[in-house]
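Chapter summary example.
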Amino acid sequence: MQYLPPCPVGSILGSLCFVLVVDHVPRHRWMVLLFALLAALLFITAITCYTVIETPRVPATIICLGMSLFMFNFGPNPLNFIMPAEIFLTCYRCTCHGISVVNDSYKSTARQDLILLLFCAVAALGVLVRVGIPARRVAHRRGGAGGEDGEAGAPG
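The structure predicted for these 156 residues follows.
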């Protein structure tokens, strides 16, 4: 019970930090960078989980897990909802969310260290897939200089 707080704290802080930077970072590069960092961090977490189980160094695993949850919520997790909504039709997004639910059901019953290694592989694959998808600019509606359709310099 004493090791539980770093996990939700990492998730909440990651989400709050993401809200602060979402409009100030290029999403495509941010996603690639954080997938790569997350793959490395999940690999380290899996190794620590495997090597320090039932030793006095268990807090190292908990800290790594808290940092991993921060990274999940600071980039890939919310961007996986934002970016597809800007690019793909709803039917494709729903299929991928169904696959994600099946994955969640499996990971709740399997060994955690193997799942962390699987997540590491998926994050590394995310880098490769994300590099292959071109970045797309989306015009945002903002008051002030832009027009009604969000284009800068359009007559208002």
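To summarize the output: The radius of gyration is 19 Å.
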